[in-house]
Amino acid sequence: MKSFVFVALFALIGLVQPVYVPGKDKSLEVSVEFPLECQACEEFAKLVGELIEKELPKETVEKEAEKLCDILPSSLKKFCHDHLLTVVDTIYDEIINNVSPKGVCELLDFC
């Protein structure tokens, strides 16, 4: 179930696109932004936290996180690999130091 929630959040990331309202006035151009990167990071950090609770070593957590990214669709897999796996060691360290998933993601500028 947790993997489903994680995959669903990543699916929403693919829906974030700039929106252009036609007209003569360029000020009508609007960028729609949702905190999906933040939510994805928080979910990822929560899953890392759950692996830590099982007392798994950092190397095992990194491998499990990579497996999680690998089951995502290609565009989402890229986001996960490019942005989340690159900081999984930091996420691990901060959660070990009792920083909340939201706090970790704020520290990493995802939120």
Automatic annotation (TrEMBL):
Organism domain of life: Eukaryota
Domain Saposin B-type: 34-111
Record's keyword annotation contains NAD: no
InterPro entries assigned to the protein according to its UniProt record, in alphabetical order: Saposin-like, SaposinB_dom, Sphingo_Act-Surfact_Prot
Entry's transmembrane regions: none
Keywords of this entry: Disulfide bond, Signal
UniProt-listed SUPFAM superfamilies: Saposin
Keyword Nucleotide-binding included in the entry's annotation: no
Record protein name field: Saposin B-type domain-containing protein
Natural source organism: Diabrotica balteata
Lineage: Eukaryota, Metazoa, Ecdysozoa, Arthropoda, Hexapoda
